[in-house]
Amino acid sequence: MRLPIRVLFPVLLAAGPLLTGCGGPATVAVPDRPAGTKAPVTTTPSATGAPDAPVAAVSLGGPGTACALPVSFSLAKAWEPKAIRNPEDPEFAALTRQGPATVRCEVDAKPAGHLGFLRVWTAEKGSAPSPARAALEGFVKAEKKASGVSYRETTAGALPAVEATYTVRGALLDEEKEERAFAVATPEGVVVVHLGGLDTEEHRAMLPAYELARTTLKAS
Question: Is pLDDT larger for residue 2 or for residue 105?
């Protein structure tokens, strides 16, 4: 069940929306989710109890889409993508840079009833034997208060990929929450796709959309 608008509004900037509006930094609001309110789940449980894959609504990353990226992938229904304005502007580096990566696009889950974002970052390939892993490790190391980091080899579509799962202490709720990201190397550099969320419950509710992006990804 979706959270009502009066509950969603105070957390419009949960997990830190970036420079997708008028080009300036946003102000983070204090969340107001009532105690006991569950994160909405927009997927339908299957006979085995696992959530079904979400409905793919549009493709992101290719020509004519909201964000021009080195990769493209399917977005879950109702998730809203926006390109980051002026991501190279040093004035906003604290918001648009994390380790070696620069954020290029963020996909807002609020229209789908969730509190979080799927963000796409890019980094130079560098000279490391595994550019994707090197970029992902630098990205995670730059995350403040990250702990319990675990890396694994995986795939993103048909491309080899590296995925990291970890926890961070959330600034809004002051509690540990799960996050994850995967990275792939392309001819145009490394792409990092990151999923956060207001809290662990929201993060887990959004995992089907993250997996849809990972399994449908292809080089643009």
Answer: 105
Whether 140 contacts 153, CB under 8 Å: no
Q: Name the average pLDDT for the chain.
A: 82
Judge contact between 90 and 187, C-beta under 8 A: no
Q: What span, in angstroms and rounded, lies between the C-alpha atoms of 22 and 159?
A: 35
Provide the H-helix boundaries in the chain.
5-8, 93-96, 131-141, 200-216
In this structure, are residues 208 and 43 in contact, taking their beta carbons and an 8 Å threshold?
yes
DSSP code for 162: E
Strand partners, 177: 168
Confidence tier at 188 by pLDDT (50, 70, 90): very high
Q: Please report the sign of the dihedral spanned by the C-alpha atoms of residue 63, residue 69, residue 75, residue 79.
A: negative
- Kindly tell me the number of DSSP H helices and DSSP E strands found in the chain: 4, 11
Distance of alpha carbon 148 from the chain centroid: 19
Q: Taking 50 as the threshold, does the pLDDT of residue 215 lie above it?
A: yes
Instruction: Give yes or no for residue 190 having a pLDDT over 80.
Output: yes
d(CA 153, CA 151): 7
pLDDT confidence tier of residue 51, bands split at 50, 70 and 90: low
